[in-house]
């Protein structure tokens, strides 16, 4: 059964009627530009074909009720209480439900939103969870696009992405940037989204993978990570420390020419965090230019340099991700890097179509040789963003 059908079936099973409609939003892979979004920098993600679907129906009693095929228990809250729950009492809400309820809360705080009557939401997803492909942004995006229509909100895709980020930051407590939500809202088939995370201006960048007979291979290491705890927040704090030391609002305001001065002013760890962000911003710009001038087969070195910077300077890779990248490259991948926030999750590899089998076999063999759990390996296609399902 497709995830869209599963969402509809769950709605009928849990809520006893047919839904008014279904909406969906995709996960994303990030081609390049990691940990640059919350530094006001540049990113180049694309939406993938894996989506979270939500079936929605109105109700008349002011409650919001959420159900998921991945969860046994529904969660039900009066809409009028969301303001009291988030963020202070968020721990009272089941972890997964903080995402959709947090989006509802964020949308109701947008100017002009009037108190709606209530809503039932049933979710089903084929976005791998914890794989670094932003199942959370897919859940937020599906909720946002469905509620915006059901509640007749005057909210453009950027406003819906902002609501998703508010949910993630304040309702869930993960101090993330806005890349994933923007990619999930604005994705286009066969293209990546170049996003300036300061202005939130976007440009669609043609990827041309199909024309060049290239595939984007994802290696889900199975190593689970959470951005609500630990390393992600520490990296963000180091970046803010580095920007303050350099006297700039954000690391976006530095260029590689500033790095000599940065090295003199800060401790080695903070310096390396700063160097990753500054050089990664430059790599995003270089990747966009290379895609335009020379096509996707020419971006391999930039992907590899991005991975090395995250491994050595930002220190967010893990052995499984390094093994995936090295094995893919040794089997002939054009480029490879970890994607997403790090500390687990997935690596991506850009591969000639006729080498996908060889890369898959090489990564699988390298994991077995290192006694890592078997990875899940699949290809993804740059796809459209959030929408009402037809
Ligand atoms: C996670 C976050 F959610 C994004 O905002 C971004 O910071 C990414 O990690 C790292 O580039 O996906």
UniProtKB/TrEMBL annotation:
<keyword id="KW-0119">Carbohydrate metabolism</keyword>
<keyword id="KW-0418">Kinase</keyword>
<dbReference type="Pfam" id="PF10509">
    <property type="entry name" value="GalKase_gal_bdg"/>
</dbReference>
<feature type="domain" description="Galactokinase N-terminal">
    <location>
        <begin position="10"/>
        <end position="58"/>
    </location>
</feature>
<comment type="similarity">
    <text>Belongs to the GHMP kinase family. GalK subfamily.</text>
</comment>
<protein>
    <recommendedName>
        <fullName>Galactokinase</fullName>
        <ecNumber>2.7.1.6</ecNumber>
    </recommendedName>
</protein>
<dbReference type="InterPro" id="IPR020568">
    <property type="entry name" value="Ribosomal_Su5_D2-typ_SF"/>
</dbReference>
<dbReference type="InterPro" id="IPR000705">
    <property type="entry name" value="Galactokinase"/>
</dbReference>
<feature type="domain" description="GHMP kinase N-terminal">
    <location>
        <begin position="99"/>
        <end position="187"/>
    </location>
</feature>
<feature type="domain" description="GHMP kinase C-terminal">
    <location>
        <begin position="296"/>
        <end position="368"/>
    </location>
</feature>
<dbReference type="InterPro" id="IPR006206">
    <property type="entry name" value="Mevalonate/galactokinase"/>
</dbReference>
<dbReference type="InterPro" id="IPR013750">
    <property type="entry name" value="GHMP_kinase_C_dom"/>
</dbReference>
<dbReference type="InterPro" id="IPR036554">
    <property type="entry name" value="GHMP_kinase_C_sf"/>
</dbReference>
<keyword id="KW-0547">Nucleotide-binding</keyword>
<dbReference type="InterPro" id="IPR019741">
    <property type="entry name" value="Galactokinase_CS"/>
</dbReference>
<dbReference type="InterPro" id="IPR006203">
    <property type="entry name" value="GHMP_knse_ATP-bd_CS"/>
</dbReference>
<keyword id="KW-0067">ATP-binding</keyword>
<keyword id="KW-0808">Transferase</keyword>
<dbReference type="InterPro" id="IPR006204">
    <property type="entry name" value="GHMP_kinase_N_dom"/>
</dbReference>
<dbReference type="GO" id="GO:0004335">
    <property type="term" value="F:galactokinase activity"/>
</dbReference>
<dbReference type="InterPro" id="IPR019539">
    <property type="entry name" value="GalKase_N"/>
</dbReference>
<dbReference type="Pfam" id="PF08544">
    <property type="entry name" value="GHMP_kinases_C"/>
</dbReference>
<keyword id="KW-0299">Galactose metabolism</keyword>
<dbReference type="InterPro" id="IPR014721">
    <property type="entry name" value="Ribsml_uS5_D2-typ_fold_subgr"/>
</dbReference>
<dbReference type="Pfam" id="PF00288">
    <property type="entry name" value="GHMP_kinases_N"/>
</dbReference>
